[in-house]
Amino acid sequence: MSRNSAHSPSAEGISRRRLLGASAAVGAFALGGAGTAWASTAAATRADVTELRARAVVVGTGFGGGVTALRLAQAGVKTLVLERGRRWVTGPNATTFCRFATMDNRSAWLTDHSIVGGVDKTWTPYTGVIEAVEGNGMTANVGAAVGGGSITYHGMTLQPTKENFARSIPLAADFYDYLDKVSYPTVSRMLGISPIPDDLLASDPYKSSRLFRDVLPKVGLTPFKVPLPIGWEYARGELTGRYEPTYTTSDVAFGVNNGGKHSIDVTYLARAESTGLVEVAPLHVVRDLALDANKKWVLSVDRIDTGGTVQEKISVTADAVFLNAGSPGTTRLLVKSRAKGLVPDLPDAVGTKWGNNGDRIWAWLNPNGDTGTQQGGPACIGATDSGGPIPYTIVHAGSPAPVSGATLMTVVGYGIVDGAGTWAYDADKDDAVLTWPSTADAALQALITARMESIAAAGGGLMLDTNATAPSTWHSLGGVPMGGAVDLYGRVLGHKGLYVLDGARIPGSTGACNPSYTIAALAEHSMETIVRKDLGTVF
Question: What is the pTM for the complete model shown?
Answer without folding.
Answer: 0.93
